[in-house]
Amino acid sequence: MTSPRRWEASLGALPDGDGARFRVWAPEASSVEVVPGGQEPSFPLEKGDEGHFTGRSNRIRTGDRYRYRVDGRGPFPDPASRFQPEGVHGPSEVIAPGRFSWSHPDWPGVSPEDLVIYELHLGTFTPEGTYAAAAARLRHVADLGATAIELMPVADFPGRRGWGYDGVDLFAPARCYGRPDDLRRLVDEAHGLGLAVLLDVVYNHLGPDGNYLAQFSPSYFSQTHGSPWGPAINLDGPNSAPVRDFFVENALHWIHEYRMDGLRLDATHHLHDDSPRHLLAELSARVRGSIGRPIHLIAEDPRNLAHLIQPEGAGGWGMDGVWSDDFHHELRRYLVGDSDGVFRDFRGSLADLARTLERGWLFTGAYSIHRGYHRGTDPAGLPPRRFVFNIQNHDRIGNRARGERLNHQVDLATYRAATALLLTSAATPLLFMGQEWAAGTPFLFFTDHDEELGRKVREGRRREFLTYAEFADEANYALLPDIQADSTFRACKLDWSEPEAEPHASTLRLYRALLRLRREEPALRSNRCGGLHAEPIGEEAMLLRHDPGEGRSLALVARLKGTGAVPVPALAGEDQPRWTVLLTTEDPPFAPDPMPPRIDVGGPGPTIQFDRPGAVLLAAES
Asked: Mean pLDDT, to the nearest integer, of 373-381?
């Protein structure tokens, strides 16, 4: 059962009886007026403590549109607008969240041990690219065995398409996907299917087009810090307390007004905050203090900081998890040989991959060539579910020049083995839409900016590839898809006929089988520190062994490259249990051209003979 709501919105235009009340922060302004969208005359708000302007009117009701005029300038959209029906430069609309009828008010949430995340982009997940169309496809995600969807950012952004990381109206769901209640219906549908909903939010910057915060106060932006995308948010300078409140209120807004089950916080290493209490610690405490069901706060942060995912009482910042891209980078360097960009820091070593599987991340203080600083701390004692592993995500596909997925670059047998390694790891797995059937479609970077901004973004993307070996020949730049073209966006839409056809259908069966075992086997659900042992077997295979303390042990033998016998002496000995096969990735249900390995783990010299890459999952007999 969920606890009673213990939060009330304080910013924006909020329904109030037969009218609406308004509250906006503009500390340097002398006057702020509400400008109704129709023929009604504007009316002033009253300035109060800390620079907030407030007021109430019966002339604006739910569904009406309005803007603010600040010291005679404008009018501008509301910084806390709940909806921008005409786009980021248009008027804001008064929205009444309390009118939505939730079908699952007692939704209990999903525990950290059960979390399997399915990341999706609303515009390309379905042909229609809407909240409603995505809701209609959620049965597929639930049947797959995922327990949460993670929506790429929905805070409204300019244009008709985009990844969402240039959002400017942080409280307003993107109009290109539908209306606010359409998003609520998506969340409600997910809860009815047993799926949690996580939302990707961007608090480190705002996009360059449609960002009107500085019109209300320059104090929203830092005078001492910067970001790669423009001005950094003022989290620690003069007048920063109301700015911090604005972003914390945004988090609470999504958790309460849309019943989200958690947030993925983008690039938290660019949340520059030298305050005694970091914004993430404050946000975590205030979110948890407002609600009684499980809420998952997950950071994207390459610094490998243990205190990021430790409780505030232990000196941490209270995040529940962090994207640990070390796993992805090490595995991809090993399988594909990528060596540009972030991959410069990785050797493609199975020994390093084993360390990452056991510890949660690889870098614990070593120097990062790519980032130019010593990266990482010791993660000892942190529960394994706090680390989010993936073999594909939106960045790692879309930031490739041609948007190639892993299954576009390795054969399907290798892809199945990598899948087994991910889904039997102790970490929280994250899947990217379509990977469960080895989708043939790419996921490219795409935008819909005005012509001048689009040109600048194109040039910036071109600069990103200057150091890549593939683009040493400038002629290759002509092969890059046009990020502004509608055809680039449309090429990324999933093809929902694929899961019914081979080889996609058999890949989907493998994902379903592995996620079923992850749900049913206590060893794969365990969040116990030290319960996983990983070791390379030669230069082409890996052993994972789960010893949960209670229940039977499991072992995965994955040949990631090559062919031949893989000896597994770690499974032999008088003190070892007898092992039985639970699954092999090259069995007929999972491979359209089956080639099962020959397994002999009952004798003194356990061996698995592979004729191609693959994986075998074994269970200890009781």
From this structure: 96
